[in-house]
Amino acid sequence: MHLGLISAMEQEQTGLLALLQSPRRETCGMREYVTGMLGGTRCTCVLSRWGKVAAAATATMLIERFGVTHILFTGVAGAASRGVAVGDIVIASSLVQHDMDASPFFPRFEIPLLGVAQFAADATLSERLARAAQRFVEQDAPTLLSADERSAFSMREARVHHGIIASGDQFIGSQARLDMLREQLPGLLAVEMEGAAVAQVCHEFGLPFGVVRTISDDANEHAPVDFMRFVERVASRYTLGIVTRFCMPG
Ligand code: ADE
Question: What are the structural domains of the chain?
Fold first, then answer.
């Protein structure tokens, strides 16, 4: 396995590069790709920046230029279901581009001329991610944050969920907008801005992929403040914990 590891922001991948053995750096298309070994897994790590185009370009580069065989996207997301709370982890079962609407020519959410609306994540990768996330939640998360940090984020014991993630070129910070999405996409667990773009690229290239997101906010009017605080103080520790458990199981 040669794993492509994408995050949108530096804070979502902090600490990971320091763990890469024999790192080799290469810059192309305004991004730095760092290849090295993590445990027994060959990894290429890169920051995509925000949004679907950035994520799609990054995934394409990973596949075509770096020859990755699998892709994992890790980062944060807004909660889109009542059972999902800040600090929980959501593993995508499938992903949809919530801002795709070429109706009346194609059904809502369907990618024109591709005939797909929801891209299924790879089952094997997602199961391995779920095991890594569950072990992280049980063994690492309880001691990772102080009681003060937990109460600052109103965090309860973290849970791992498996379900639909929706991506779009829009930060969701409105309860009304979120309610609309939830109505249109039954089973929706989380919203973010990149996963479904990576999913489409992987679908087109026939590459297995997985998406794992830590919930940073409730995608409502408080989201911009909650998101920034979470990203600055917590996000990197979650990514690091889950990815190292994924690459170094046991
Ligand atoms: N990533 C984290 N929180 C988000 C939100 N509320 N909307 C879109 N992407 C996000």
Answer: 74-247 (3.40.50.1580)
- Compute the distance from residue 76 Cα to the ligand 1 centre, in Å: 7
**Encoding tokens for residue 249?**
């199981």
The residues near 27 (Cβ < 8 Å, ≥ 6 apart) are 33
Tens-place pLDDT, residues 126-167: 999 999 999 999 988 888 888 888 888 888 889 999 999 999
3-state secondary structure 209-240: EEEEEEEEECCCCCHHHHHHHHHHHHHHHHHH
Cis peptide before 112, with omega less than 30 degrees from 0?
Answer: no
Residues in the chain, total: 250
Whether this model's pTM surpasses 0.90: yes
**Pocket residues: Cβ below 6 A from ligand 1:** 76-78, 171-173, 191-193, 216-217, 219, 223, 227
Q: What is the pLDDT of residue 32?
A: 97
Mutate to test the pocket of ligand 1, among 50, 217, 226, 232 (most ligand atoms within 8 A of CB): 217
Two tokens, residue 23: 């790192």
